TrEMBL record:
Residues annotated as domain VOC: 5-131, 156-282
CDD domains: PcpA_C_like (cd08347)
Matching InterPro entries: Extradiol_RC_dioxygenase (IPR052537), Glyas_Bleomycin-R_OHBP_Dase (IPR029068), Glyas_Fos-R_dOase_dom (IPR004360), VOC_core (IPR037523)
PROSITE patterns with a match to the protein in the record: VOC (PS51819)
Full protein name: Glyoxalase family protein
Organism domain of life: Bacteria
Length: 325
């Protein structure tokens, strides 16, 4: 039983069309699955990733059209990182962000790594992180038809940042229930706040870290468009997933039980600070029901929703994701 790293991060958008434009045209990620929220089939669930949606590369969005503004605060997943191959890729994106008027900060250091903090059009808090000096979990492969050069593109998810007021319960969950170890820290960019703690699992590196920020100057976050719903952690298979369910029960943590998501199997629980974690299996993956060349171009529905396709499609705004081949 070992968590292999970050599996995916799921966030909220109020506008699927604009979201699709930003993440594919400006960031150069590939839409590998256009499906629906399985808990509310009236809204899209979009998956952006590397060329095939390799575990550890997926940034996903639920479209909630009436989602309000996010008011940042504690008890939140307050930042999502995206890995790029090297420092030169950061310079490329800095110029690209200037060209597209993306809200960004200057290139800076986060511990030993160079980063660019930036925001999408809805205020989603994002960071490009350089793998120049990285060892650990391998990244994915940029889609050859990406809108950015293959040698500069996003190769996966980096660390997720959690923000809490009382770190003790979250540290206990990470280190005593899960398989994370505290490996380092770096100064908070906010004056007067404690250092941000780095927790690592599995092979380590940018694809296997959670960063924990302590803030005593913020209220509880009010999520909306531009906020993160949950972070999912990689487990090898369904057998391990069941073992994690048993472990959570052993520690008396309420959990969802095993959930069928078709592209992977899941298990959900909240830590005492209210942060929603998911365990997700590495398989079976996104080519289960679509050819690799056509991923994300049509509305994909798991078999158990197929008989509802007509009703589901009438509730969704059309979203053109077809590519010329």
């Amino acid at each position: 039983m070992e968590i292999k790293g970050i599996h995916h991060v799921s966030a909220i958008t109020a506008n699927a069309k604009e979201n699709y434009h930003f993440y594919t045209e400006i960031l150069g990620m590939r839409l590998v699955k256009k499906t629906v929220n399985q808990d509310d089939t009236s809204v899209y669930h979009l998956f952006y990733a590397d060329e095939v949606g390799k575990p550890g590369t997926d940034l996903t969005f639920f479209e909630i059209p009436n989602a309000g503004t996010t008011y940042p605060g504690i008890n939140s997943i307050s930042g999502t990182s995206l890995r790029v191959p090297n420092d030169a890729a950061l310079t490329y994106f800095q110029d690209r962000f200037n060209e597209y008027n993306v809200d960004q900060d200057e290139i800076s250091k986060q511990g030993e790594r160079k980063v660019i903090h930036f925001r999408d059009p809805e205020g989603q808090r994002l960071t490009l992180i350089s793998d120049e000096t990285n060892t650990g979990v391998a990244g994915g492969n940029v889609w050859e038809r990406s809108s950015v050069p293959v040698d500069k593109g996003i190769i996966g998810l980096g660390p997720s940042k959690l923000t809490v007021q009382d770190p003790t319960p979250t540290i206990t969950v990470l280190t005593e229930i899960l398989t994370f170890k505290q490996v380092s820290s770096y100064p908070s960019p906010v004056s007067g706040q404690e250092d941000i703690l780095i927790f690592s699992t599995g092979e380590g590196g940018t694809g296997a870290e959670i960063h924990l920020e302590v803030r005593n100057d913020l209220p509880k976050e009010r999520p909306g468009r531009g906020s993160v719903h949950h972070v999912a952690l990689r487990v090898a298979n369904e057998e391990e997933l069941a073992a994690w369910r048993d472990r959570l029960q052993e520690f008396r943590f309420p959990n969802s039980g095993l959930v069928e998501r078709f592209y992977f199997r899941s298990l959900y629980f909240r830590d005492p600070n209210g942060i929603l974690f998911e365990f997700a299996t590495d398989g079976p993956g996104f080519t289960t029901d679509e050819d690799m060349d056509y991923l994300g171009e049509s509305l994909a529905l798991p078999p158990y929703f197929e008989d509802q396709r007509e009703v589901i499609e009438t509730k969704l705004k059309p979203l053109d994701t077809k590519k010329s081949h």
